[in-house]
Amino acid sequence: MPQKKHLRILCVDDEPHILDSLAMHLRKNFEVHLASSGAQALKMIQQFGPFAVVLSDMRMPEMDGATLLSQVKKLSPETVRMLLTGETSISLATKAINEGHIFLFLTKPCPPDQLLKSVNAAVKQHQLIIAERVLLQETLLGSLKALIDVLAITNPLAFSRATRIKKNASKLAKKVAVTNRWQVEAAAIVSQLGYISLPESIVKKVFYGKILSADEKVLVSEVPKVTKQLLEHIPRLDPIIEALETFNKPLWKNNIELTKTIPVTARILKIVLDFDSLEVQGQSVQLALDTLRAREHIYDKKLLEAFAECIHHSDKVNTLIEIPLRSVQVGAVLVDEVYTEDGRLLVPKNYEVTKTFLQRVRNFDSELLNKKVRVFVID
Fold first, then answer.
1. pTM for this prediction
2. Where exactly are the structural domains of the chain?
3. Which residues contact 345 (CB under 8 A, 6 or more apart)?
4. What are residue 76's phi and psi, to 5 degrees?
5. What are the Cα distances from residue 231, in Å, to 154, 227, 239, 243?
6. Residues 105-127: pLDDT tens digits?
7. pLDDT by residue (tens digit) across 22-67?
């Protein structure tokens, strides 16, 4: 964990002498930054954040402390929030806790030893939050990556779709500032895991909207169950499993809106999955969006419009080139299907090249590696 002296604290108060006092008592142990208003504090967080702790006065003109700290939570969820006030009313405390989601509530005047003790506790809480994130990234997400690598090898069609869905889900989650964006990305990438149990021919029919036989429909209906079985023994995946189980639930029933009862991860997943299906089946981006808009009470309208905005906005320019398969790089998109010499599908259309794919393709003979393929590369 970082040394305390390198941890940054932001103190916010409209009274200069209080800011000076806070800085005097804290700067021996922390890197202290000062802001004289809520607006200035938010600007500093956007430009120089994140901060480990934000300590704010409650009574300030234009923006009070509770309102500021609620904005801090959105901008920097891992920042621990503390409130300093000269009032102790129940209504004030309730507002601060409900709106600002504060860690500690301090009253003025606050003795220096109590101030330092409280800030130390907040810093410790910040370090626990960071450690939790690292744990998720290195263990939980590592376990999911192992499963996805298996999917990439055994069912490249499903893996390719999972990659596209994750990219679009991540764009939308970022656009609407979802707090736990990793949950959205994880749900998107594992949403296709269950297809590992199906033959490639059936997966292809599902993705391209082809008619399934009665037996094939039975097999496809088991896909969600297989996905859950693969995930349920991995700890801390409950929100992801819930999203996978609820994304197809109706948002309206008997003229009653149920949107808020469905997790935002599930509502995002519904949009990106259905959009991808329409695109794969040949619809343009605009036609696919119009098709989704025409389906009443199926999607969260605000999320759908946000998705339309972020899917249209791209500052990346793709160049189409033809190169040997051995020369493709991570991030390039293979335009056409690529088959092995014995007729097995190696990659589907619009497959984004990954490290796992490059490692796998090296095992094939030189004839396949020398085969020319068309790829999109980002300029």
1. 0.67
2. 4-130, 155-314, 316-379
3. 156, 157, 200, 337, 338, 339
4. -145, 80
5. 18, 6, 11, 12
6. 888 888 999 999 999 999 999 99
7. 999 999 999 999 999 999 999 999 988 889 999 999 889 889 888 8
Preceding omega of 263 cis (within 30 degrees of 0): no
- Whether residue 288 contacts residue 275, with contact meaning beta carbons closer than 8 Å, is answered with yes
Cα within 13 Å of Cα(107), Cβ side: 6
Contacts of 264 (CB under 8 A, 6+ apart): 176, 178, 184, 303
94: helix, strand or coil? helix
| Fold match between domain 4-130 and domain 155-314 | no
Range 155-314: architecture per CATH = Orthogonal Bundle (1.10)
Q: Which residues make Cβ contacts (< 8 Å) with residue 225, sequence separation at least 6?
A: 194
Report the distance separating Cα 57 and Cα 70, nearest Å.
13
Class of the CATH domain delimited by 4-130? alpha beta
What tokens were used for 328? 């493709």
